[in-house]
Amino acid sequence: MKKRNAVLIAMAAAAAISGCAGGNNVQTEYSEVETTSKPAATAQVEANVSNVVTAASRKTEEASSRTLIAYFTWADNTVVEDKDAAVQSALDHYASIGDSSNYAGVDAVSSASVVQPGNVAQMASWIQGEIGGDLFSIQVTEPYSSDYDECMERASEERADQKRPELTEKVDNMDSYDVVAIGYPNWWSGVPMPVLSFIEQNNLAGKKIILFCSHGTGGLARSVREITDELPSDCSVEKNVLGIYRADIPGGQPKVQQWLKEIGY
After folding, report:
1. Which uninterrupted H or E stretch holds 244?
2. For 87-136, what is each residue's pLDDT tens digit?
3. Interval 194-228: pLDDT, tens
4. In whole angstroms, how far apart are CA 187 and each of 28, 71, 195, 221?
5. Which DSSP string corresponds to 51-120?
6. Is the whole-model pTM more than 0.70?
7. CB neighbours (10 Å) of residue 76?
8. Do residues 192 and 222 touch, judged by C-beta distance below 8 A?
9. What is the DSSP letter of 11?
10. Which of 1, 116, 150, 162 has its CA 20 to 30 A from that of 261?
């Protein structure tokens, strides 16, 4: 009898041990499920964040693709056969009006807009580097002289006659742009006539317009008003216009960056 009881007790103990072992297996399996589910959840969160970032990046790219940066610069509208002579003619003019002191310590070649890339083209490239968009150089079919005085004499005659010089090309896909940035130098206290040719030959109706200018001591002068008067009435013109003094162009990138922040880019 005692032997039988001992056997029963042993069997009960074995069953209890087996039950405990089964419990441990269940807990282990549960723990493993928990452990493997955490990386899956994390991966889903990371995927969601990635999708948001990608969507934001795509919107930024789309906005950039809808921006045109059109600019007129002397360097793209002349033929320079003697670079040193061309630069000297510009500096001689500045000296004749008492403006040469501003070039102290500045490379004359980078200061004169007749030399590539040109002051306004440099500004345009900085703008593109910050906000993207497409560059468009406004160019005339009949180049200007690389001699400063001769160039300005022709510019003066075009202004007096309110002439619209013929351009080499127009923008074929203007409808695809929402924002048009227009850059130019101050010529004779106003905008060069080829810029008005560009506005006249390209439909800017409904566009947002932002302006940037390279100038001498005259600042923006009448240029903004002249451009605004030429634009379609339904254009939205940014009132904050960027103007950089020509001698400050070599170090002007921070000014461009600050200006873009001020106008929401």
Report:
1. strand 242-245
2. 777 777 667 766 654 444 444 444 457 778 899 999 999 999 999 999 99
3. 999 999 999 999 999 999 999 988 999 999 999 99
4. 82, 14, 11, 10
5. HHHHHHHHHHHHHHHTEEEEE--GGGGB--S-HHHHHHHHHHHHHHTT-GGGGTTS-HHHH-TTSTT-HH
6. yes
7. 19
8. no
9. H
10. 116
Q: What is each CA distance from 260 to 59, 63, 119, 127, 147, in whole angstroms?
A: 18, 15, 18, 8, 34
Rounded to whole angstroms, how far apart are CA atoms 161 and 154? 11
Tens digits of residue pLDDT in 123-157? 999 999 999 999 999 999 999 999 989 999 999 99
Could you give the CA distance from residue 187 to residue 215 in angstroms, rounded to a whole number? 8
Q: Which residues of 159-186 are buried (b: 16+ CB within 10 A; e: fewer)?
A: beeeebbebeeebeebeebebbbbbbbb
Instruction: Return the structure tokens found at 189.
Output: 């206290």
CB 183 within 8 A of CB 137: no
